[in-house]
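Risk register update: the risk of archive-format incompatibility is retired. Evidence:
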Amino acid sequence: MMQLINLGEQNTILNQFLAELRDEHIQTDSMRFRRNLERVGEIFAYEISKQLQYETREVVTPLGIATMNIPSEKPVLATILRAGLPLHQGLLNFFDNADNSFISAFRKYSKDGTFHIELEYISCPKLDNRTLILCDPMIATGSSIILAYNALISNGSPKHIHIVTVIISKDAIKKLQKNLPLKNLTIWTAAIDEELTVKSYIVPGIGDAGDLAYGSKI
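Archived output:
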C-alpha cells in the first residue's frame, strides 16, 4: 500500500522554509530560494533515514570503543533537471555517500496549449534491491514522475521507492496511485495543494521552481 507522509502537518521549522518558498517577495532572492529548497531536502533526508536498514559497528575513539548503529545501505538519489537540483543537493548533504541519477524531461506544448512530457536524457546506476529516492520540488500532474520512474526501472527493480516533493497536487496523488506500483512506495511532501491552472501549475503553489532557482528561460 502506498504511504503518503505530509510533514507540513507537523509544527516544525519546515513550515518556515515552505512559507519563504511561497512568498513572492522572498522569492526574488534566488540564492535564498535555492537554499530553502536545499534545507527542505535535508529535513526529508533525516526523516527518510529512519526507514533505512542499520547495522551495529564498533568505532575506535581516542579513549576507547563506541558501539554505533550505522546505515548499512547506500541509497540512490534521483532528480529531474533542472528544478530538482537544490532539493537533490539537500538530500545529498545528508546521504553524502549515495549514488546519483539525473533525468532530463520537459513539457512539449502543442499549438492548442496541451502538452506531453518528453524524456531527453538519463544517467543511472543499477537499481536492483536498492532504495531509490526520487525528488522533484513540484508535482503538479504526476506525469514527469511517472515518466522518470518508468525510465529508471529499466536499470533494475528497487526494493523501496521514496518520492520527495515540496508541494504535490491532489490530482497528482490520484494519478500516481493509478500508475505506480503501490507496494514499497512512500511519497513525502511538505504540502498538498488543491488546484491546478489550465496550464497545469499548482495553486497556490510557488510558481516555476526552476525559474525561481536559476533564472527565467526562453
